[in-house]
Amino acid sequence: MLRTSLFLISLLLSSVFCLENINEELEEYLSIKSLRDGRVTSSFSFTTLLRDAIPRDPRTLAFDDDTSQHYTLFPLSLGQILRQYAITELHLTLNAGKWNYDTWGYPDEPDVGVGAELRAWMAGDSISSIDERWQGVRNALAGLFCASLGSLDEQRTTSPRLSFPPEGALPDWGLPHELRHASHASEHVCTENLTPFLKLLPCKSLSGLATLLNPHRIFDADWHGIGLHVLWRPEGVEVRLNVQLVFDPLRISAQGKQDWSFHSLFDRKVEKACPVASSTRVSVELPNSGVYRVYPEPQEIRDGKAYYNLKNNNEAWNIGTMWPTDFEYPLSSPDPALVPFSVTRNLLGPTQDRGQLSIVLTNNQQDTLQLLYLETMPWIVQFYLHTIRVHSDNVPRDDLISNISYVLPVPHARPATFESVLTLPGRSTLTFSMDVAKAFLRYTEHPPDAQRGWDLPPAIFTPLNQSLNGSMSLGSRVYTPSLLVDLATPDFSMPYNVIIFTCSVMAFIFGSVFNVLTRKFIVVRVRPDPPRNQSVSRTEKRLEDTDSDTSNELNTSKSGVH
Fold it and tell me: Which stretches does the entry tag as region Disordered (predicted)?
């Protein structure tokens, strides 16, 4: 008994010693901001840093001699996928809703395209090797997050040149790095994606800021999305799990006010901090105007934000903001847009074989603005580049589009990729239009809801910022809403009509043949008609005699059968 106790004590001390020397770090952060239309945006960020770690060299994949994976805070299941397919950088987002840039401004996490979006940077000495690993990581993430990421196959995969530069560093292995990008507009986030997402956190949803992630409130928000980001920095490999939400306090509040708190938004409070997190912080952006009160009293106010440190406090936290005066929605929004440009994207045309892609861009500032325009379109919609037309304030300006890069689609194999640079003069409206052709599909290629149409991925616009030394840098990306294209659909009721008609004919034939085979036929002899000059009474008498003779013959035949 004494030996067992000493062994357990030594094991506990060794575990504590190992925990103190583990080179992993977890930070939790929550940013809350009140929007000018009365809504509230909440952005959760759970960042795990694996210090002094580097991505796996893809040249070691052939030897299968990778070191064992032992993590304490870093998610093991994700780490195994990253090592198995030698992923240098990875970004995955699952979103639902339309982000209103004009009213809400730029989001904290820029990847707000509707549906699923996945991109990865991988090094390799051949394209086939990268494509095989891309397929493997898609399927692995699909199983990890219970999402239909396996549908992001080669028919949805692209490799844009400029729109998605690496956000972290790329190791210098002497091998070229390739980008793979795919999106699926009809794949939305749901509870079955949130559950495995929370399992990647060290404290799950038992403590820390993750306790606020109530599925009933998350998926009732006006906009909601989750994301996974893996980067390599000089400090090590960083994994950031984020949840971004937009609530409407007026809709969920019983008093009909814009007051909000942890309990009113999430129906929960932060009871205790995550014990393995190095920091647990909350920031609340203070409103620019109006009479308001933030509670409890913030520990620090800096740059228009109130900061709270929840790490060393054991009390339940219910941070919130209240306005003593009633709030009313403005009938019109006189305030200018919160982004430098606004965009509207439509697919026009009354027919199901042709159409026109129309984009309207409005520059909200005085300075000239350059935008990097990316359009990834499935092969079912084909571009006619010779029909591109650019107008600025209804004046033809073909000089406002440059650096066009186009990758042709391949039916059933590859989507189209269109990249260009658009120049917007100050305080102007630019119109971009291009004719498109809609493909005819086999009836087996249509989705179950074919009459609804096909979801097309959003377009992406990225401002090009010029620095003082003349170099260009990319600003925050702007995603347009997805489009719905109406393709020519066959008459899906025809197979059922054929089945019904065939069954009716078969039933008629079977019934007739069965009737012929089972019915017993008997010859009935009928005497000739009486002469015309005979009286009616004699004729009737002869008919009666004929009927009696027939009855006698029938009775005789029946007795013969027995």
Answer: 530-562
Max Cα–Cα distance, the chain, nearest Å: 136
DSSP 230: E
Q: How far is CA 27 from the centre of its chain?
A: 27
Query: Between the CA atoms of 419, 421, 427 and 428, what dihedral angle is there, to the nearest 10 degrees?
Result: -70
Asked, as a colleague might, if the bond just before 396 is cis with ω within 30 of 0, I would say no
Report pLDDT for 17.
32
Q: How far apart are CA 404 and CA 416, in angstroms?
A: 13
Q: Read off the pLDDT of residues 171-180 as tens digits, 9 standing for 90 and up.
A: 998 899 999 9
What pLDDT shows up at residue 16?
34
Query: Rounded to the nearest 5 degrees, what angle is found at the Cα of 472, between the Cα atoms of 470 and 477?
Result: 155
Q: Quick one: CA dihedral 144, 150, 153, 155, positive or negative?
A: negative
31-34 long-range contacts, Cβ below 8 Å, gap at least 24?
A: 31/108, 31/282, 31/283, 31/285, 32/282, 32/283, 32/284, 32/285, 32/319, 33/284, 33/285, 34/258, 34/260, 34/285, 34/287, 34/321
The CATH number, out of the four listed (3.30.930.10, 3.30.450.20, 2.40.30.60, 2.60.40.1170), of the domain defined by the range 341-485: 2.60.40.1170
For the chain, what is the mean pLDDT? 87
CB atoms within 10 A of CB 513: 10
Reported as a single tens digit per residue, the pLDDT across 432-482 is 999 999 999 988 888 888 888 899 999 999 999 877 676 778 999 999 999
For the chain, give every domain's residue range: 30-248, 341-485, 495-553
What residues in the chain have per-residue pLDDT under 70?
A: 1-22, 64-66, 326-334, 468, 470, 530-562
Of 325, 375, 319, the closest CA to residue 345 belongs to: 375
Cα R_g (the chain), whole angstroms: 36
The pair of structure tokens assigned to 481 is 């809403």
Give me the pLDDT at residue 444, please. Answer: 84
CB 345 within 8 A of CB 480: yes
Closest Cα partner for 477 from 198, 235, 189, 183?
Answer: 183
How far, CA to CA in Å, does 375 sit from each of 25, 120, 177, 453, 460?
Answer: 38, 18, 22, 19, 7
- pLDDT at site 318: 94
The amino acid at 156: R
